């Protein structure tokens, strides 16, 4: 009954107002009325049970969407905004308080607040009290809120929020917006939220308020248009004669005008409230994102409703904000102004603003933010289009020089400004100009370009100028005929001819334009470089290249003949053939022009001795001597004639000098030098091996060395020519000899490394060469492709002798590269790709890799440890790419990596003090790698590389007890509370690694001797010796070494050199072996290697502790002397049995090719010729003779030899 009465009253109200409504309003009312009638059966059902609505595309969803809030519906983005707004309007018309409460909660939830404004709060509390209540319930633990969160979901949410506000105002513009309830409440709420101290509230409400303002401006604009139309209709009707005038229509139009005027006044009041309550305060907010929102929207208002907003009262805010400290705010100001300056109609209203802020805009062209500078130049270009006199000459000059900027977008924008200013104005006198020739319009513009290029005084940057103008003036720069006409044709009467400087500048610009056309990429230093061309661009490139060839094939010989004596012009002209399509010479029947070109180039070679000119001639012949084209024979004949003449002349002059045996006179020296220059320039690009220049240059240099009277320039060019001879011989090395070339290259890098300046040879420092990253990568790739291959793949025969020979060659290659690692010629991290092959190719290269790791550890323990862990990480990543993230940890690939980690762990030996810092750094890198990548399963899942901790646990036994605690503390930095509670199988690596850092801490053994004796006695099946050399650390020591200050020392430090600082303070008392005085220098001692904090170093031990420690030392020495004999027997027995750190490591049959060949075993290597250089390493020994070597961590026997056993234990 209530619904029926409501519909009846609504229908009556609508019919009463229908007479004074616009036709569109009538239609909207009818639509709303029909919706209400259709929905009267389900209206109670929609509101039943809750105030929350859930409609998608006008239809209820049965489950998920049924009870979603308005915020969740907009966030999901599955509903059409129009349908969501229509549903809310229908709900508002039914009961406006619950609907408005839902809208309030929508804005609160959009801010990231979890609080809910209930109906009781809405009825009895002011907006300020509601905001205060919501602020108290706001979760400030995280600074993220929807507008500040990254990702496509939240980016789409922001767009959906803005669209919702715009559609809401558009749908309510005829009725609800004027009810003095909904808009007043929303504006009051947003104004209060925008003044909050909470950034999320302030940012979200400012965005909502500004979008609401933009929607209201659109409504006001429509009202203004309707009001003008109504006023015009009213004036038209009133001006009719009395007999034709319709008084009823006049009254209706008058009533409509009055209503529209009232609505417009009300909209203006709303806009004023938002502008003064929100914009005035927030356009200078401390948060740059909020300021950006304000400036972006005010630009929209001025562009949409210029009659109301495009005045100085609003423009001043944009002008002031151009001085903002944040680049994004300044950028938004410029883009907002561009929309205004783009329209010629709006330009007239910007004169005062332009005069006030022009200097600021000009200065912004040099902004430190490139994006801001680009937009500033574009804004000045738009201002220039509207009024050519708005910028002074000084203003324009400050923009002109930006065409030479290294940042291409800035340069292109400046090029467009230059083109608009200098080239886009055509007078009436230009209409009758010819299209080609010296008097065409383009010829005049080319002259202007040349004058600008010369006045800029940056002649070496012609390519930059051309690239800057390319996007806007490419047609001008491709007018080759006009350029050639300016250079070759005689000037017309009264026309000023080009000066010598202008001709040189025009040739350079023409060359740069040809290069840009053919290469289709910016010059070096500007832009990302080459890119993939589209099919259309490729076709345009081919067409342009054909046109260039047809044009310059005819003109180039004439240009060379005219400017043959000018080195600068000739050098540029000789570069044009590099961009020719040589096929055109044949298809276009241009052979006679080719002959003319070759004659001119030959004349240039004979006339000039400048290096640049001769190299340009050489490159011209190199470009034309292409065997793929039919012109090759024609060009090759001319080239051979030139070289025959020069070589014969050189031989003749050389014989004269050698026969005289005296110092050559000035004329002879000049002839020899000029001939050598020509030969050297051609030898750079052409193979002159058949002329045997090496012998001639050797004779010349030998004569100068014996007599000491050879001019320095002749010696320099003779050496350079000899250098090219050697390079051409190397270039002829066939693919089958690639291994030899690789070995030679490695030896050359080793010779010219930093060691060349050792022993007082500092004068050779200029010869030091360090390979860059690209060369190191190529060397490593060669090793990976040619060494680490299976024998079946590498050998094409089944002959065992051939297989052994091939293996020997591969070992030589690997040894040559490993030398570079050992001698620091290449970065040690390149060894990671070598070390990871240790298990797979142990039989072939195990000894080489093992010795490389040993020597690398002697160079830098920490860097070696980082390289080992890097190799394991590479294998782990390869396994992930092959098996996926859901691999089985029992897979052979994972087990192989874990076994390799175990082998690596054994190589660190038993002296944990010596390897303490390296092991700690290894764990640090491993932990960071394990938690580096997020979980592919989303939040709550294990990190992608978490299983790597299972591999890392193989190194836990090498940690000291106090270091285990430190590493465990560092591990907990990456763990969350939820991770510590997980017990699923996927978290087992983390559990096992944590256990490895906690279990067995009391059994740490710090003594090398005690570790070796216990290990050898266990293998010999004998009873365990008394642990004389084992002693637990005092509790105070452990606690002090694991202090938070010590943890931060190594966890948070950065490496500043090849040797990383220590990870933590050393304990007061440690049980370690006392080495011989002559073998242990003070700077190599434990206290010198592991620095301690001042407090730890200077705090003395308590007296009872000192006495107890001294007594314990004495007792241990007595027990050690008694056990010495037995332990020595055990150790020597162990040596004879060949047991050691690597239980499975058996030396391969093939001897180490990295060692010298002295005392070599009579094995398969006997009689082989080692091509590679020998490293200065200890000579190779068999197991019985290794007792004389120093400890080698890769040899189980030598680590416990006599040199160690001769040292007293305590």
From TrEMBL:
Gene Ontology cellular component? chromatin; chromosome, centromeric region; cohesin complex; nucleus
Which keywords describe this protein according to UniProt? Cell cycle, Cell division, Chromosome, Chromosome partition, Coiled coil, Nucleus, Signal
Q: Where is this region: Disordered?
A: 1011-1040
Q: What span is annotated as the signal peptide, if there is one?
A: 1-15
Instruction: Fetch the Pfam families from UniProt.
Output: HEAT_SCC3-SA (PF24571), SCD (PF21581), STAG (PF08514)
Which SUPFAM superfamilies does the record cross-reference, listed alphabetically? ARM repeat (SSF48371)
- One GO process term, biological-process aspect: cell division
Give the principal location in a single coarse category. nucleus
> Is Cell division a UniProt keyword of this protein?
yes
Intracellular or extracellular location(s) = Nucleus; Chromosome; Chromosome, Centromere
Q: Which residues form a coiled coil?
A: 220-273
Where in this chain does the record put each SCD domain? Answer: 279-364
Which terms in the Gene Ontology molecular function aspect does this entry carry? chromatin binding
The UniProt subunit note reads as follows: Part of the cohesin complex which is composed of a heterodimer between a SMC1 protein (SMC1A or SMC1B) and SMC3, which are attached via their hinge domain, and RAD21 which link them at their heads, and one STAG protein.
Q: What does the UniProt record say this protein does?
A: Component of cohesin complex, a complex required for the cohesion of sister chromatids after DNA replication. The cohesin complex apparently forms a large proteinaceous ring within which sister chromatids can be trapped. At anaphase, the complex is cleaved and dissociates from chromatin, allowing sister chromatids to segregate.
PANTHER family with a match to the protein in the record: COHESIN SUBUNIT SA-2, STROMAL ANTIGEN
Annotated family: Belongs to the SCC3 family.
Q: What is this protein called?
A: Cohesin subunit SA
